[in-house]
Design goal:
This protein is of the alpha+beta class and 158 residues long. Helices cover 23% and strands 29% of the residues. The protein has helices spanning 5-23, 32-49; strands at 2-3, 68-72, 78-86, 92-94, 98-101, 108-114, 126-131, 137-141, 145-149. Strands 1, 2, 3, 4, 5, 6, 7, 8 and 9 form a nine-stranded antiparallel beta sheet that branches. The longest helix has 19 residues, at 5-23.
């Protein structure tokens, strides 16, 4: 298991810069062709900066990336986390911030960096992850996260 926190920060900053400086079609403007192109760019950035060429990058933005683990930084005792629940209408609904003891955070696999609104400038201050096993979606602020990569066996803990 390799600590890739620094590489993830570079990936996040590169993604943000490309979107905010070159691809954002305008504040509040949705352009699906640009969104699709940006997602492809992000996957390639993740593949080259963090995942050592792994095809696991193809999952970015859609599902958990096995072997790319999100862990609370060791200096935090508690971490604010939001949990998704499925609504009867087919939508996901997010809890408010719940303070969870860092030691009680389940094994989380990275899905993507996230902003509530992606139709303007982005910060990517939030990590979207999924609980290993259950797949339950979780939001956690990026400043609380370290990242670990194990491309060999799908993610044994350090």
């Amino acid at each position: 298991m390799k600590d890739v926190t620094g590489q993830m920060q570079r990936f996040k900053e590169a993604s943000r810069h490309i979107w905010n400086s070159y691809l954002m079609p305008g504040e509040g403007v949705l352009d699906m062709a640009v969104e699709d192109s940006f997602l492809q760019i992000e996957r390639e950035l993740l593949r080259s900066i963090v995942l050592e060429g792994s095809t696991a990058a193809d999952q970015y933005g859609h599902s958990a990336i096995g072997g790319l683990i999100v862990k609370p930084k060791p200096l935090h005792r508690e971490v604010p986390v939001q949990f998704a629940r499925a609504g009867s209408d087919g939508n996901s609904y997010w809890s408010g911030d719940e303070r969870v003891a860092a030691a009680d955070i389940p094994k989380l696999e990275f899905v993507d960096f996230f902003d509530w609104t992606h139709y303007g400038y982005i910060d990517y201050a939030i990590v979207r992850a999924a609980e290993s096993g259950s797949g339950r979606r979780v939001l956690i602020q990026a400043l609380y996260c370290d990242f670990w990569w194990d491309g060999m066996d799908g993610g044994s803990q350090p």
